[in-house]
Amino acid sequence: MEKNDRDEKFLKIQMILAVIPTFVTQLIAFYRIKKLAYGIIIEIIIFFVDLVIQMSISWPFGMIIALPVSVLIPLYYVRKWTLEFDRTKSVF
Length: 92
What we know:
Layout: H1 3-19, H2 23-32, H3 36-56, H4 59-91
Helix pairs in contact: 1-2, 1-4, 2-3, 3-4
């Protein structure tokens, strides 16, 4: 398996872990790229943002807004940091 194929496979696995809307799988994705501390901070902030959204907006509409927030923000950072992680691995 070529290095490029391994990097693409790693990125795909990271994206799958980040898309699942549970903080455990998202933290696993952050852990694998050595950004666990940042991941925990992001998850705590997202938790409180989701809580505020769901407390201020009634049931179905609050969830419709909160779910994309809780998935897309970690997805963005996992993708960004995974690409950086792959670049630093290829240097060594």
